[in-house]
From TrEMBL, chain A:
Signal peptide: none annotated. InterPro entries: BPD_transp_1_N (IPR045621), MetI-like (IPR000515), MetI-like_sf (IPR035906). The lineage of its organism: Bacteria, Bacillati, Actinomycetota, Actinomycetes, Kitasatosporales. The chain crosses the membrane at residues 9-29, 99-121, 133-150, 184-204, 241-269, 289-312. It comes from the Bacteria. It is a multi-pass membrane protein. It is found in: Cell membrane. Residues 97-312 form the ABC transmembrane type-1 domain. Belongs to the binding-protein-dependent transport system permease family. This is ABC transporter permease. It comes from Streptomyces sporangiiformans. GO terms for cellular component: plasma membrane. Coiled coil: none annotated. It holds the Pfam family BPD_transp_1. GO terms for biological process: transmembrane transport.
UniProtKB/TrEMBL annotation, chain B:
Belongs to the ABC transporter superfamily. This is ATP-binding cassette domain-containing protein. GO terms for molecular function: ATP binding; ATP hydrolysis activity. Keywords: ATP-binding, Nucleotide-binding, Transport.
TrEMBL record, chain C:
SUPFAM superfamilies: P-loop containing nucleoside triphosphate hydrolases. The keyword Transmembrane does not apply. Residues 330-366 are annotated as: Disordered. Residues 7-256 form the ABC transporter domain. This is ABC transporter ATP-binding protein. The keyword Nucleotide-binding applies. GO terms for biological process: peptide transport. Residues 332-344 have a biased composition (Low complexity). Keywords: ATP-binding, Cell membrane, Membrane, Nucleotide-binding, Transport. Pfam families: ABC_tran (PF00005), oligo_HPY (PF08352). One of its GO terms (molecular function) is ATP binding. It is a peripheral membrane protein.
Amino acid sequence: MLYFAARRFLSALLVMFAISVLVFLIFFATPGVDPAARIAGRNADPATLAQVRHAFGLDRPMPVRYLLMMKHLLVDRDLESFVNRGARVIPQIVQAAPVTLSLVVGAAILWMAVGILMGTAAATMRGTAVDPLIMLVGVVGVSLPAYWLGEVVNLITQKQLHGTVFSWVPPPGYVGLSQNPGEWALHLLFPWLTLSVLYAGIYARLLRGEVVTALNEDYVRTARAKGLSERRILVRHALRCSLIPIVSLFGLDFGALVGGAALLTEVVFGLPGIGKLTFDALQNLDLPVIMGTVLYAAFFVVLANALVDILYARLDPRARHA
Amino acid sequence: MTAQNIVAADTDARPRGDVLLRASDLAKHYPLRAESLTKRRRVLRAVDGVSLDVRGGETLGIVGESGCGKSTLGRCLVRLTDITSGRVEFDGQDITTLSARRLRRIRPGMQLVFQDPQASLNPRRRAGDIVAEPLLIHRYGDAAAVRRRVAELFDVVGLASAHLDRYPHEFSGGQRQRIGIARALATSPKLIVADEPVSALDVSIQAQVLNLFADLQEEFGLTYVFIAHDLGVVRHVSDRIAVMYLGEIVELAATEALYSAPAHPYTQALMSAVPEIDDGPATVKGAGAHRRERIVLTGEVPNPVAKPTGCTFHTRCPYARERCAVEHPRLTETASGRRAACHYPLDGQR
Amino acid sequence: MPDQPLLDVTDLRVSFRTRRGRVTAVDGLSFSVAPGEVLGVVGESGSGKSVSMLAVLRLLTNPNVTVSGEVLFRGRDLLSLPDKQMRAIRGREIAMVFQDPMTALTPVYTVGWQIAEQIRAHEPVSRKEAHARAVELLSDVGIPDAASRVNAYPHEFSGGMRQRAVIAMALACSPALLIADEPTTALDVTIQAQILDLMRELNARGSAVVLITHDMGVVSEIADRVLVMYGGRVAEEGPRQAVFHVPRHPYTWGLLDSVPRVGGTRLRRLPTIAGVPVSPDSLPEGCAFAPRCRLRHERCDERPELSAAPGTPAHRDACRLPADDRTSLRLTARAAATGAAAAEHAGRASKAERADKADVEREAAP
């Protein structure tokens, strides 16, 4: 186990190092991104530029610049944005993370619940009209892009019907959980729904396939021969085994979303999360922030991977000794 | 029942030629993945020090329980897999370390027939093309010659020419195995290694395919290495039989000798475990079924990764003594002229 | 009444709706099992032997299946029983063991948990009690160190051990009837011998056993009575000795003759049954075996009824051959089988004959 954990940790470090180098190189290989020009502001004279370059160490060789940036980011934790002078990267991320986490955790609970219900229901009602109907709903969910759905939801709840049905919907934005839990939930309700529609559709389809396969397995026949109730066979045997691949997929999706992949939903609903932060930084070509968010995202994806492996071993005894 | 259909018990069934295939101290080891940095990599000894000769025109049966290495041995014998150590000679030529190119020139002479005809036939190709493939690979001749040869092969294995254009899934299990046999015969091999060729078939179909094997041997003077777990099937087809246990041959004997008086305790236990059909008094059959005393082995086959010390069978052997746990017996001639890997071989004391 | 059967199946029919129309897998099957007896059901693939037993326990869940007939178990018709009562019978009064022990257990629960689940489904006992009984059962079926092995997962058991565990589970509620579907087919011969011993022991404790198998040797070793099935119908049934010593149906002859034996005379060529087993989607009107039978005649177009052998009412077969003198007919059939095979070997069968055979095989191919 220790050997396993150590190997895992080392590979995670390696991945993060590689990503950071890649981001760094891509950034400086992109034309027209001279950070000095951005820091010095518009129409700065060459002398100022040179001064800025020197002050930020931008005239040093690339490896040194990389190490300097990493030192500021990870050791001194005082790396500053190139665009908004004085704005430090780490506090920005620390501030944005809870927003994204709130959004993704809520949506994940929703989509897992709905996905499992839909998938299981469709699988058990195979051969009836309910099955294709549920699956159709799932496909519709999958094919609605989040930004479009979000805009439509906003249009309806903020404009068209805001005066009547949806008068209780607060304007886009975010309220911290510790400040006011009720408002927090209210602000996040539609973002949750929007984000979970896509994933619920995907997970329902996947789970249906898994449960249908499981229901044809020999062990389900054994369970029937034991005289168990259909409900118990479905939940304790078929569904339990079907969840194994679903859960590992969930870990990866969850990690990616927390890392910033919920970007579109955040932007549409004006949530100041990691995705939004990355989005803005990319628009301004603000290397320090990009570097910070990308490393943060990589960290979560790697962490999610490790958690999935551990969870997998918990769920599937066959994986424990392999 | 005609008299010539009975295989005489006391003679060698077929005149034997020279040694066609010889394996000397053959081994195939698979290294397993390390469990941790500190532990040593473990090794699965699938085949461990096997020596045997196969003479031209004879059938050597290889029998044993699952995991005994009989299939791996079969693949080693035709160099379908690389060999860890030891030596394989085919037709007087050492093929142990032949390069892929040189091996290709030998290939037509030795062919393999697999257990699962469904899995070993490409589902997207027509039966005729499947049989033609080895002919094309080994440049048998022009298109017309290949067509003629395929039609001939179909006739030989009892398939109709109407079957040439069908796909594997349109055939029954027995017919698919016939296609596999036709493919193996295409290049007129001297040796066919058949790995459980009838175990997936219903008994009535199994008998048909076994008869086909017998006919082909007689007609083309084929040499077979016949791998199976079914002791009845092996007895039916083989002139001599090698019994394997945990990657080693524990006994090698002529078929009748082996079945009437096994020298190795494992062989004895294996034979006694086969459920026999009781045909009753010798009215119809000609020979009455003789009941034997059953020896039910305790426990299961040990993990081949962690083989027992000494004699690998001593953990389950009803006759094991102290020496068996320490000293590894070699396959040698016993006092009664049999070849068994046992310190205390049985001497017809059944 | 002491002779009342435990299980009495009358005119069981199972059919599947497929794209190519209705397919009859079991075609009017009737048989019974007496308390404490071992009934061996033999047949090749497609004979309907497994499907009929699944139908008895109502384990055919496919919505395209239709089952009809009467299955009386201790006087109750299982086919018309409400689901809940049926569940109370499954696993408690009738247990079933399947062919492949590798896949028969749910991979994510320990063996002990699964045995305890079975006990608790039928008896109001505590978790702890059920667990203790699981240990006892495992040790009963010969698993060494049961107290610790009870907490092992199925994948930690070998095939033979798993089959023991499955049998332990089946025995949990001391069923009156155990249906075992090819319980040893996936196992090595030395392990098979152990499992057969276990079944015998179980039978000695009073359970009746229906053993489904394709292995005539297994039946010969363990069965009291034998049911030979072909094409979803009974070809022959009777006490073991009668069926094995004086078999009456040409199909039974073929089955017995085509098995290569470990003892006795060694034949260069085996007598075979021509063609391939009949497939459920092409069952003939008359005798199902007629297309492969070497002694078929015009009357075989008419479906034969089961009729008793002269002098032995318990030994019945469905064949239109004259009821007496089957033994000499058998020799004729075998000579024909050997002769036809030899002819094929010598000069290769005539074109017409081979085309005929190909037709039979093609029809039967899936």
